[in-house]
Amino acid sequence: MLTTNELERYDRQIMIKGFGEEGQEKLKRARVIIAGGGGLSSPSSIYLAAAGVGMIRIVDNDKVELSNLNRQVLHWDKDIGRRKVDSAAEKLKKLNEGVEIEAIDEMITEANVSQLVAGFDLVVDAMDNLPTRYLLNKAALEKDIPFFHGAVYGFEGRAMTIIPGKTACLECVYHGTTTPEEKFPVIGVTPAIIGCIQAAEVIKYIVGIGELLTNRLLICDGLNLKFTELKVKKDPNCKHCGHLGGKE
Ligand SMILES: [Zn+2]
Predict the structure, then answer these.
(1) DSSP 128
(2) What is the whole-number distance in angstroms between the Cα of residue 238 and the centre of ligand 1?
(3) Distance 242 CA to ligand 1 centre (A)
(4) From the CA of 134, how far away is ligand 1's center (Å)?
(5) For residue 97, how far is its CA from the centre of ligand 1 (angstroms)?
(6) How remote is the CA of residue 164 from the centroid of ligand 1, in Å?
């Protein structure tokens, strides 16, 4: 049940066709884990908290650095040196007291990834490296948890939604390739665009409306402002999801 306060707070989204109070109640019951507390996590967590997602777990083990502040808008000058998860949790609580925020200061590894995502309705990929994305992709598939991928580089961003056993996964698309782990360029507007696309996908999935970004890799070229979609398919021989379910 929604309180009088919640009915007023979320009035404008409850008005959306197909959303209704029922959709809002689904958001309130939802448990979302956001892997990463930086550039993609900032917009996705802000908009998910504002939309009334009941519980958000943020996992990151970095501290806020000055060079983060051009894009990681949850962290401010005063937060330099603090744990990112604490800085994020503080802002999100101030934005919406009704949302439970759990801050986990851990690095995501093969040893803890399964435990971190267990019991959650979905995983938001707000990472900055492919090896950890693969770990999350695999764990989400194993636990039958939808996975919302996002990535950025300079002015370019990508997004895709993965429904285990039904749609192409990250491994189907990238086949285990990785990029060297080094400092890469990013302007804040790129994770802003992609993080918001991820949040929109998450909200649609929870509420159960619209068409998800599945089997389509969305590429946003911010420099020329072009959106391109690559059609992708679930690979029956995929190392991560080949053994799961049928096709869609
Ligand atoms: Zn796959």
Answers:
(1) S
(2) 5
(3) 6
(4) 10
(5) 38
(6) 9
In the chain the first and final C-alpha atoms are separated, in Å, by 34
164 within a domain of the structure (yes/no):
yes
Q: Domain of 208: which CATH number?
A: 3.40.50.720
Q: Which single residue is written with the structure tokens 């040196």?
A: 81
21, 104 contact by CB (below 8 A): no
Structural contact between residues 213 and 194, judged by C-beta atoms closer than 8 angstroms: no
| pLDDT tens-digit series, residues 82-95 | 999 999 999 999 99
Maximal C-alpha separation, the chain:
51
**Which of 169, 178, 148 is CA-nearest to residue 40?**
148
CA 240 to ligand 1 center in whole angstroms: 5
Residue 97 is assigned to a structural domain of this protein: yes
Using CA atoms, how far residue 178 sits from 38, 95, 117, 175, 182, in Å, is 20, 36, 23, 9, 12
Distance from residue 175's CA to the centre of ligand 1 (Å): 8
The enclosing H or E element of 216 equals strand 216-221
The number of folded domains in the chain is 1
Separation of CA 35 and ligand 1 centre (Å): 20
Task: Supply the range of the domain harboring residue 170.
Answer: 4-231
Tens of pLDDT, residue by residue over 13-65, are 999 999 999 999 999 999 999 999 999 999 999 999 999 999 999 999 999 99
Calpha distance 117→33 (Å, rounded): 7
Question: pTM score, two decimals?
Answer: 0.97
Cα(165) to centroid(ligand 1), Å = 8
